[in-house]
Amino acid sequence: MSRRSRFARSQRMTIVNGILVFVILIVALQLWLFTATMNAYLGGDTSIVLPAALASSLCLGLNAGLLWYLHQMQ
Question: What separation in angstroms does the CA of 39 have from each of 33, 42, 44, 45, 74?
C-alpha cells in the first residue's frame, strides 16, 4: 500500500529548501559556538565548556528533528 504525501512536489521542494536554510544556520551557529568556546577555554575560562556543550547538543537535536521531519514528509 503506497502512502500519498500531503504536499505537492513543488510544495515539498519549498519545505526542503527552507529546512536546508535552517540547517545551514544551525551549523554556522555551532561552528561559531565551538570557536568561541575553544577561545575561552584556551584563555583559561573553563566555566563556559558545559553551557556550550549543552547548547551544541540542543543544535544537534534541532538538526536531528529536522531530518526526522524530512523522512516523515516523504
Answer: 10, 5, 9, 9, 42
pLDDT tens, position by position, 2-32 = 566 677 888 899 999 999 999 999 999 999 9
The pTM assigned to this predicted structure is 0.82
One-letter amino acid for residue 27 of the chain: V
Q: How far apart are CA 74 and CA 68, in angstroms?
A: 10
Q: Closest by alpha carbon to 41, among 32, 56, 26, 52?
A: 52
Instruction: Name which of 23, 15, 14, 1 is nearest 72 in CA terms.
Output: 15
| Residues near 56 by beta carbon (within 8 Å), at least 6 away in sequence | 30, 33, 34
